[in-house]
Design brief:
Oligomer: single chain
Largest sheet: 7 strands, mixed
Strand order of the largest sheet: 3-2-1-6-7-9-8
Distance between the termini: 32 Å
Helix content: 25-40%
Low-confidence stretches: none
Order of helices and strands: HHEHEHEEHEHEHHEHEEHH
Number of strands: 9
Number of helices: 11
Length: 296
Amino acid sequence: SVLGGFLLSNERREKQALREQPRELSQKLGQAIDGIASTSPLTVVDVGAQSLEDEDHVYAPMLAHTKGRVIGFEPLEHRRREREANERNIDLSLRPTLIGDGRSYTFHINNIDATSSLLPFNRDIVDDLNDHRTLETVATETVVTTTLDEAISDVSRVDFLKLDIQGFAYPALANAASVLSRTLVVHCEVEFLPFYLGQALFSDVDPLLRANGFRFVDFSRLSRSAFRSGPPASRDQLGWAEAVYFKEADTITNPSWILIQAFIAVTIYGKLSLARHLIGEYDRRSGTSYESLFDD
């Protein structure tokens, strides 16, 4: 009887509708975007573009519903080859460039290569946390970084900018003012602890993006770890997250860019109220009635 009450409740029906609506809206908005010549294809810039075994690329749902291309930056050659071999079905361009501030650094290649960084580990932090204490650097090489402004100066609009570069997001963003001026959504790994020596934290990245016209929307993922002393299941320390920022609509002059933001909001993040808010602004500027899609 209790189970039946839950399954037949209005609350469950409403939640089921919330799960189904993003798929339908994604398809319809994707078709709308494909129909606007100036917006298609959408452009994803992926800084730190290697594939991870246990998860899809965060922007994969976006590419499933509209025409798009991915420009990726991944310094490890075997990871570039691996992704190119596995993703022949998308418009993918992978580059070996290390994105940063244009200066030379020592690139630290680690035993888990997804943690490789232009910065060395901060052993005082890493050794204290159960999930991180086995990390170590196995090789180093001297590299020269390139700024995002230089690397994609020919890209007229970045619809989705994703950064996962292990403590180096702040220098990359601080030297990307031109790119940020034409970027609609930023999805950025940020840290709350200095896992790497000399790195900036979320408290540094957040005001930088706000100063460039972005609004913090949410964390799409939060990662916590247990202290080495245990117990391992007691994951008490928040270490890092993936932060989501949308360009403030009142700073966007092209209304179709707001339609793209709404598409990303619902397709990648399932944020229906944000999407409807943005669609309302798009309709107001363009004289359309896409907001009615939310009433179906």
